[in-house]
Amino acid sequence: MPDATKVNIAEDFSKVISTKRTGVLLFLLMALSIFSGECIAAGSEKPGVLETVLKWLPLIFTGFLLNLLVSLVSMTLGTIAGVFLGISQMSQIWAFRKTARFLTQFFRNSPWLVLVFYTILVFPFEIKLFHSVIPFPSWIKATIGLSLPVMANTSEIVRGGIQSVPVAQWESAESLAFSRFKTMWLIIIPQCFKRMIPPWMNLYAILTTASPLISLVGINDALALTRAALEAEGGRIDLLLPMYASLLILFFIYCYPIAVWTVRLEKRYAEKT
To answer: In CATH, which of 3.30.70.1530, 1.10.3720.10, 1.10.10.10, 1.20.1250.20 is domain 22-272?
Structure first.
């Protein structure tokens, strides 16, 4: 058997082992949380921990879906704005280049929670349009707040991807009388697109795990509903670990495949370059 084949088989086997190990750790975490809760609740007449967790899990899952919606919309808005901002960083026009770099560095180095609070306060709660009053939901404002750091990080991903293309590509396009616009969109961007996918996916995973920040501004996401469920149960101490462990597992199940796929794409594109 060739050495390359042996290495690929070993890597695939290690990935399977790693995935199974992670699944076992999650199972043990949940089992330990439920067991500790059952020990604390032993001798009381209250419903069991597992029964209570399963009762509230559908409600928590609806909040989790809101987290996913916020992360998807924020990622879409931030990506669209970030692509143009990243290209503007490479502009030959001084004003565009300096403005794009300032916005990128400002929002990239600003705390996400502060941006969420700022957008909640700066935007109105309702918009008056002619004789109609249109409500402006808080989750939309929080989505805009999260899209700002996504925009800045996407801008850096685009800038880095463009700069990774050899200068000879620019020179060859210039010798063929391509304009800078055509060179950028027809030659440079297609070459660096694959290189930008892994960090972009990693950014989305980070955004998803950061989406519970919106609960701090009064939005009923998964974290807020988990706290509400605990309060509805009278603040039972035995439910703290199991309830938050179930929330942790929900996010992990969604984000872990993204992380695995990101690593695989990075290796695949590294082998081709």
So the answer is: 1.10.3720.10
